[in-house]
């Protein structure tokens, strides 16, 4: 070893001494000696590596307490970080979809810290069934006879198929063999559930006679899948649920619909694209309807199955239900969310999903103009800022075809370089509360539809 290296090694401070450093002591008091000593050991190992490889101490060695605190901050950051969703997609799957309503948040907080009557009947002091309260609410809201709750809608479809048509044939139109992002494909789910998919009709046209002629002794289910992420236009034909339900009744075969989203209120009354409602399908005679808790419903991630009592009982008793069931946190959030639907007049104000989807464009425009004035001083040197009209999306992956007029703040690099834009986007992703925008057409767009607290954004962007 060279004397030079020896000299560098001797400069490394002892861990014991660092632990007693007045700048480190508060961190030891807060996080405990074990965690801090471990971090210091890692830092020492890194410094030794640097001496060995380059005969040099890393830059941060000039201030060990400072370097320790920086690492500690990074390490203590939770993986689930709150961000500003200015991507323009309201129900963004990668950003956790629906924001919960205040009553749902309160219900979750209460349920988390206390023992709750999850499967406990206070009257009989016996064992209740964990979906009961939520199922009762769903029956009131949809007119269904019973309901079953699982972890997400993909699980709902899997459980439904496995419990209703095990080893049997399931008839689906070729126009509805949907792939939802994240490897949910109807033909694959069928296989996993132990069902045999029978495709009928063509991509653009399927008729009632196609379903009818596919029926035989092995048919266990007639199924429709809502094509929530694409549309087939032009020379098309599909069988509606009323007709299919009649055929199912006539043949003694259950009929199911995977709605995907499925809103419990008529979206058209808010000027939003119409979405099929579970209660309409139940009224049309469909036996089972599945939909997500965190798409248009605006609740927690969950899969909801509503329908006929005898069929729901088969789902509840199936071993997969035990594997796919939800916990008290989900049930608490879902119950509180569904209660909001009992007061439809208040829904647009109380349910964040609906509130954000129904914000008028002028509101985002006014917001863009106010922010422009406040942010120009910080960015004008490198970027041209403008308030510009844009389109928001309702969902990512699941509902990308429906667009809503919105307004954005745009940042165009004065040097016209994509790398300048990418650098800005990257800098914003590393802020204490990261700002997620969208790069498009040589600009960075911040769609303001989901921004309800302008001052919070100004604070992080101007820091
Ligand atoms: C979104 C969707 C699913 C999957 O629902 P998750 O809640 O994401 O599991 C299944 N089917 C359709 C038609 C969908 O739109």
UniProtKB/TrEMBL annotation:
<protein>
    <recommendedName>
        <fullName>L-seryl-tRNA(Sec) selenium transferase</fullName>
        <ecNumber>2.9.1.1</ecNumber>
    </recommendedName>
</protein>
<keyword id="KW-0663">Pyridoxal phosphate</keyword>
<dbReference type="InterPro" id="IPR015421">
    <property type="entry name" value="PyrdxlP-dep_Trfase_major"/>
</dbReference>
<dbReference type="InterPro" id="IPR018319">
    <property type="entry name" value="SelA-like"/>
</dbReference>
<keyword id="KW-0648">Protein biosynthesis</keyword>
<dbReference type="GO" id="GO:0001717">
    <property type="term" value="P:conversion of seryl-tRNAsec to selenocys-tRNAsec"/>
</dbReference>
<feature type="domain" description="L-seryl-tRNA selenium transferase N-terminal">
    <location>
        <begin position="9"/>
        <end position="48"/>
    </location>
</feature>
<keyword id="KW-0808">Transferase</keyword>
<dbReference type="GO" id="GO:0005737">
    <property type="term" value="C:cytoplasm"/>
</dbReference>
<dbReference type="InterPro" id="IPR015424">
    <property type="entry name" value="PyrdxlP-dep_Trfase"/>
</dbReference>
<comment type="function">
    <text>Converts seryl-tRNA(Sec) to selenocysteinyl-tRNA(Sec) required for selenoprotein biosynthesis.</text>
</comment>
<dbReference type="GO" id="GO:0004125">
    <property type="term" value="F:L-seryl-tRNA(Sec) selenium transferase activity"/>
</dbReference>
<keyword id="KW-0711">Selenium</keyword>
<comment type="pathway">
    <text>Aminoacyl-tRNA biosynthesis; selenocysteinyl-tRNA(Sec) biosynthesis; selenocysteinyl-tRNA(Sec) from L-seryl-tRNA(Sec) (bacterial route): step 1/1.</text>
</comment>
<dbReference type="Pfam" id="PF03841">
    <property type="entry name" value="SelA"/>
</dbReference>
<comment type="subunit">
    <text>Homodecamer; pentamer of dimers. Binds only one seryl-tRNA(Sec) per dimer.</text>
</comment>
<dbReference type="GO" id="GO:0001514">
    <property type="term" value="P:selenocysteine incorporation"/>
</dbReference>
<dbReference type="InterPro" id="IPR004534">
    <property type="entry name" value="SelA_trans"/>
</dbReference>
<keyword id="KW-0963">Cytoplasm</keyword>
<dbReference type="InterPro" id="IPR025862">
    <property type="entry name" value="SelA_trans_N_dom"/>
</dbReference>
<feature type="modified residue" description="N6-(pyridoxal phosphate)lysine">
    <location>
        <position position="295"/>
    </location>
</feature>
<dbReference type="Pfam" id="PF12390">
    <property type="entry name" value="Se-cys_synth_N"/>
</dbReference>
<comment type="similarity">
    <text>Belongs to the SelA family.</text>
</comment>
């Amino acid at each position: 070893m060279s004397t030079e290296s020896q000299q560098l090694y001797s400069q490394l401070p002892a861990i014991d001494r660092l632990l007693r450093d007045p700048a480190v002591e508060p961190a030891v008091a807060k996080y405990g000696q074990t965690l801090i000593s471990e971090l210091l050991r890692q830092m020492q190992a890194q410094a030794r590596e640097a001496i060995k490889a380059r005969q040099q101490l890393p830059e941060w060695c000039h201030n060990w307490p400072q370097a320790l605190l920086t690492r500690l901050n990074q390490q203590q950051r939770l993986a689930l970080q709150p961000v500003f969703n200015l991507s323009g997609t309201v129900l963004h799957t990668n950003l956790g979809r629906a924001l919960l309503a205040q009553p749902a948040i309160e219900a979750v907080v209460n349920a988390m810290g206390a023992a709750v009557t999850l499967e406990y009947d206070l009257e009989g002091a016996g064992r209740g069934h964990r979906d009961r309260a939520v199922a009762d609410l769903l029956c009131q809201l949809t007119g269904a006879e019973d309901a079953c709750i699982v972890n997400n809608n993909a699980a709902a479809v899997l459980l439904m198929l496995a419990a209703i048509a095990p080893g049997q044939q399931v008839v689906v139109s070729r126009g509805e063999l949907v792939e939802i992002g994240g490897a949910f494909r109807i033909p694959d789910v069928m296989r996993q559930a132990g069902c045999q998919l029978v495709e009928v009709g063509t991509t653009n046209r399927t008729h009632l006679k196609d379903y009818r002629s596919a029926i035989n002794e092995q048919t266990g289910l007639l199924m429709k899948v809502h094509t929530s992420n694409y549309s087939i236009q032009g020379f098309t034909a599909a069988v509606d649920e009323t007709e299919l339900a009649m055929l199912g009744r006539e043949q003694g075969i259950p009929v199911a619909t995977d709605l995907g989203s499925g809103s419990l209120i008529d979206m058209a009354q808010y000027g939003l694209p119409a979405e099929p409602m579970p209660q309409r399908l139940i009224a049309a005679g469909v036996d089972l309807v599945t939909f997500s808790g965190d798409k248009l419903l605006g609740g927690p991630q969950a899969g909801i199955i509503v329908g006929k009592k005898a069929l729901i009982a088969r789902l509840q008793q199936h071993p997969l239900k035990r594997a796919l069931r939800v916990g008290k946190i989900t049930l608490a959030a879902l119950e509180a969310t569904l209660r909001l639907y009992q007061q439809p007049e208040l829904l647009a104000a109380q349910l964040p999903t609906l509130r954000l989807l129904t914000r008028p464009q002028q509101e985002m425009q006014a917001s863009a103009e106010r922010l422009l004035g406040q942010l120009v001083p910080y960015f004008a040197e490198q970027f041209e800022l403008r308030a510009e009209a844009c389109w928001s999306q309702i969902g990512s992956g699941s509902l990308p075809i429906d667009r809503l007029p919105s307004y954005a703040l745009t940042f165009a690099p004065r040097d016209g370089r994509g790398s300048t834009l990418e650098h800005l986007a990257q800098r914003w992703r590393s802020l204490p509360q990261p700002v997620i925008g969208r790069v498009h057409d040589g600009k960075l767009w911040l769609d303001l539809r989901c921004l309800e607290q302008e001052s919070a954004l100004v604070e992080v962007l101007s820091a």
